[in-house]
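Lab meeting minutes (informal)
Scribe: AK
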Amino acid sequence: MVNLDELLLFRGKDYVVNDKISIHHPTLNEIADYGEQEYYGLVSRLTCVPSDYKVQLFDMGVDYEEVTEFDLFTLICNGLDVEETAILFGDLNFKNMKLVKHDKIDEVVLYNYEQDVVIDRAIYEIIVDFIRKINGFEKNIEIAGNESTKKFLIEEAREQLGRNQNKKFKSMLVPLVSSLVNSPEFKYNHSTVWDLSIYVFMDSVKRIQKIKNYNSLIQGIYSGNVDAKKLNKDDLNWLGELK
């Protein structure tokens, strides 16, 4: 886990990894123009871990617990077009990246010869941690205790893939935007909300939930329906950290 500067995230600035790689911090407007389904599909692919692809890897004859996150990322890169990743990486071409041995650090890295861009394991972790953080994604680590459990998890995931195959895409952002612009605690309207970066917007969703929960608890305490002594102190601090 990379220690990201949360104040920098809250400012909505792009993240400069090095002189070759910069990650754009998109606004709601940019995501809407790009396509919400396509955007979250891209983010999911970039930040996935082997357990997310357990079925596909099994069908390839690969044990997902034997594949590293970076190894999976190198496979994903082969299918990413510049137009697809431009919303986050500009003209960086992932498809042209090849696995090569880096003599100085003695490990295999992704290297784009045309753009002279290197992505090693450390840079990969910075990239995926930033993308997860701004979008509110959590890493899904799933370890089977034994082979029978692993087989069960794979078949369960296969059934889930089958159920989701014909499901129509439902927007995650529409109900959130609608809820916030109609909430008195939110200071943006339908016209101005689109200029917010995705991290700031998702932070607002969580913060307003925390404020509303606080107000409900205070009303409950004053009415005698809630025992303040049984509450977590964090619940009574709407200025506290968000989970």
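Next up, CB showed the second protein from the same session:
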Amino acid sequence: MRVATSADHVFAREFFTLSERSALPKVPACAVCNSQKSVLEHYLTTVLPLGGRHDSASEMLSSYVPRRLSKNLPLHRQLYDGRISVASTANGASEQALAFPIEHTKLEEYFALIAKGLAWYHWKVLLGNDDVIQVTFLTHAGERYFEKNLLNVSAFQVVRGELGGRTITYEGRQGFGCPQVTVWRIEMYGGLEVIADATSLSTKARSIGILTGPRSS
């Protein structure tokens, strides 16, 4: 167990425009976790806004992303070379949109840290090495399963959050009997789409589901 040495925003301020950064949740963090999270955030705060569908998406793309890409030319080249055209939906209509490659493992690592931060921020629950954190990208079918079997069951505590004018929304539930058992659903940038297979819309995910709990002995 490491000692916290600083306070850290659960969601990095750079995910938001300057006008959206007030009252963001903060938690204590040790130097190791803070450093690990910072590396992931440098990558994700540059890549994720490219798929924004929220109200301030245009501002993020025009005022923030170009500056970040200019500081990381290898990432800029990787995104440019890896871009593809995929089918997308907006306001119920089908259209073509650009998709960019993303390292899914970094998303999974990051949202595992997010679950730790949210559990402490809302319930003072410390998730440690003896706990399992499972991150899942929820397809349409996955959303239905998650809603029916995990978010609509009775819970000891329930929280909902909207950050930066719904730039990021989340809901969480804590199980009875064991405080480390939590369920989270997080949506970023108005339903940012993550696609595992560009040829199949059934692999498209617009939210992240997270389960935490003690490791089985």
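CB comment: The chain has one domain: 6-214.
No objections, moving on.
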